Amino acid sequence: MIDGKIQNYGVAPVMYKSRTLVPMRGIFESLGAKVSWDGATDTVTATRGSSTVKLTLNSPIAYRDGRAVTLDSEPLLIEDRTMVPIRFIGESLGVTVGWDEALQRVLITTKTNPSPNPATPGTPQPTQPDPQYQYIAFPHPINTSLITKKENRSYAKRLETGYFVVHETVSKSTARGQLNYFNTQDADANAHVFIDWTEVLLTLPTDEISWTVGKPANNFTFNMELCHVKTAADFAKEWEIATTYTAKWCLDLGRDPLQVIRSHHEIATTFGGTDHTDPDDYFKEFGKTMDNFRQDVAKKVETMKAQGKRWS
């Protein structure tokens, strides 16, 4: 899957030496790479932008921008198709490669997807209103109060946004309580936005790298923390605010909710970095699941599209 779109290359990916191999020509063409094949040496060279990669059939030695690299799994010829290691190819050509355990899919995110507007510390917005839409007021308070304690900030710009990640806070406090914690304690952590049953509170610039899901996913995720509430009534309010805000985020960036929204648990399973499983138990406590969250967001997105509306 590339940028949320399922790919079909005629031959299924194969596992070899614990690495995923995919058809060479299909993946290169999907990434927009220029490909040349040297039949005399069984060597393929692919160029994407300023990046070049060279591989030889059955050889563990490859070249990334002219530098030799030893592969864990060499390219193979299977059913008359040259199969190449997708992670090496993707990362060599400047894209992010992950694995969705639940769907059993390779996930590739290119850098063509826009990041949230760096000039706006709040919700990502189109640079100018699109006249084809009717803009209406967002139905819940969106406030901005950035974390001020420098030890809890990266101040590094995120270059891509592959996923919108849903978390649950450890402590049962409000969004303002969470902000106070990160402004006064050395947590070496943060989040882009905290949501409770009363407000959306943005605490980082939307394009800043957050310290929320661990490496490598910190570099390509937007992270939302849901404050752990105590009552079903407050959870229902928080759920409505969170799903509506996430729908706005997806609409503003033109992203598919079913493809881009992930739980912390799902991101940890795919990319590592932490062993967290939130917000699974929190949602279960109130009879909800991550699939419910994605579906509710998708319904809101489709309703807004059908009505020709966007939230301002």
Record keyword descriptors for this entry.
single chain; 312 residues; six-stranded mixed beta sheet; five-stranded antiparallel beta sheet; elongated
Descriptive account of the structure:
This protein is of the alpha/beta class and 312 residues long. 26% of the residues lie in helices and 26% in strands. It contains 8 helices and 19 strands. It has helices spanning 24-30, 86-92, 175-184, 232-253, 257-260, 264-271, 280-285, 290-307; strands at 14-16, 19-23, 34-38, 43-48, 51-56, 61-64, 67-70, 76-78, 81-85, 96-100, 105-109, 134-136, 142-144, 163-168, 193-195, 200-202, 221-226, 261-263, 309-311. It has a 6-stranded mixed sheet with strand order 13-16-15-17-14-18, with helices on both faces. The protein has a 5-stranded antiparallel sheet with strand order 3-4-5-6-7, with helices on one face. The longest helix is centred in the last third of the chain and has 22 residues, at 232-253. The radius of gyration is 21 Å and the shape is elongated. The relative contact order is 0.12. Mean pLDDT is 87; it is low at 112-127.
In short:
This protein is an alpha/beta fold. The protein has eight helices and 19 strands.
- Let me know the largest β-sheet: 6 strands, mixed
Ends: how far apart?
Answer: 31 Å
> How do the strands of the widest beta sheet line up side by side?
13-16-15-17-14-18
Proportion of β residues?
25-35%
The total strand number stands at: 19
Question: What is the succession of H and E elements?
Answer: EEHEEEEEEEHEEEEEHEEEHHEHHHE
Q: In percent, how helical is the residue content?
A: 25-40%
The geometry reads as: elongated
